[in-house]
Amino acid sequence: NDATHVEGSHLRAQWRLTEHMKKNAPLIKKSALFGLTPLKTLLVRTITRAAGRENVRAFDSRAECEAWLLE
C-alpha cells in the first residue's frame, strides 16, 4: 500500500485498525507499505505488533515491497 498520502492518525482510528488487523490475520499472507516517514513507520510497527501480526512490513520503495511480497 502506498502510504505517502497519509497525514495524521487519531488514537481511536489506530485502535480500530489494530482490531481490524487482528480479525483479518488468518486471511492475509503478507502486507507491505511504502512511503512512510520514520514516525509513521514506528506507528505501523506498533499497531502491527499490538495486532499480533508479524507479516506486515514497511519499506522505502514500491520495488522493495513487491520483492518481499513475492518471496
Question: What would you say this structure looks like, in words?
Answer:
The protein has 3 helices and 2 strands, in the order H-E-H-E-H. A two-stranded parallel ribbon has the order 1-2. It is mostly helical and 71 residues long. It is flat. It has helices at 11-24, 38-50, 62-69; strands spanning 31-34, 56-59. The model has no long low-confidence stretch (mean pLDDT 80). The longest helix has 14 residues, at 11-24. Strand 1 (31-34), helix 2 and strand 2 (56-59) form a beta-alpha-beta unit.
Keywords:
71 residues; mainly alpha; 3 helices; flat
Low-confidence stretches: none
How many strands? 2
Radius of gyration based on Cα positions = 12 Å
Major beta sheet summary: 2 strands, parallel
Q: Give, in spatial order, the strands making up the sheet with the most strands.
A: 1-2
User: Helix content range of the residues, please?
Assistant: 40-55%
Tell me the number of helical segments per DSSP (H or I, 4 or more residues long): 3
Question: Which whole number gives the mean pLDDT?
Answer: 80
How far the N terminus sits from the C terminus, by CA atoms, comes to 17 Å
Structural class: mainly alpha
- What would the principal axes of the Cα set say about the shape? flat
Query: Would you list the SSEs in sequence order as H and E?
Result: HEHEH
Beta-strand content: 5-15%
